[in-house]
Write a structure and sequence with these properties.
The chain has one domain: Pyruvate-ferredoxin Oxidoreductase, domain 3, CATH 3.40.920. It has eight helices and six strands, in the order E-H-E-E-E-H-E-H-H-E-H-H-H-H. The protein starts with a strand and ends with a helix.
Length: 189
């Protein structure tokens, strides 16, 4: 059976590190993994989407409409945009943080209201104040690993396996903060 996870966020939020941690973890469990990065203006705060598919045999990383088992969203509006990709019975784990896209910054558009409530009406949602937890861990840039921790809790993969992957994937100078961020996300009630 194949699992499809879509990681969505804004450039600079660490979606690529999150996909590396996820990919390396499932590889260590013996799964076939395919990862595809699709991003717009990631250097300028644009949308970033990464597809991660794993299972006994995976032929393509692409996740179509209604195919994602899990959507890991680093920002509210990105969560809302990705919603059509969530399969019936799937789960969306969304950071409650708001980051204004360029049209909102320039005044050409308004940031939609009540996004979290709208998502909850139609989907299984785990809202997470990942920014607050990342701050507790010691660095606001650790939002990505907080969210990986929340997601990891719902998998059959052992906590220790995730920790070992983080140790082998994250640069040493950021390791302590990221291990703490993962633990905070994993133990979120």
């Amino acid at each position: 059976m194949t699992k499809s996870i879509m990681i969505v966020g804004v450039g600079g939020q660490g979606t690529l590190l999150a996909s590396r941690i996820l990919g390396n973890t499932v590889i260590s469990e013996g799964y076939d993994v395919k990862v595809s990065e699709v991003h717009g203006m990631s250097q300028r705060g644009g949308s970033v989407v990464t597809y991660v598919k794993f299972g006994d045999k995976v032929y393509s990383p692409i996740i179509g409409i209604g195919e994602a088992d899990i959507i890991l969203a680093f920002e509210q509006l990105e969560a809302y945009r990705a919603l059509p990709y969530l399969k019936k019975g799937g789960t969306i784990i969304a950071n409650t943080q708001k980051m204004n896209p360029m049209p909102v910054i320039t005044g050409a558009a308004e940031y939609p209201e009540n996004i979290i409530e709208k998502i909850q009406q139609s989907s299984s949602l785990i809202p997470v104040d990942a920014l607050e937890l990342a701050e507790k861990a010691g660095n606001i840039k650790a939002v990505n690993v907080v969210l990986i921790g929340v997601m990891a809790k719902s998998t059959d993969i052992a906590y220790e396996t995730w920790v070992e992957t983080i140790k082998s994937t994250v640069p040493p100078k950021f390791l302590d903060v990221n291990l703490k961020a993962f633990e905070l996300g994993y133990n979120l009630k």
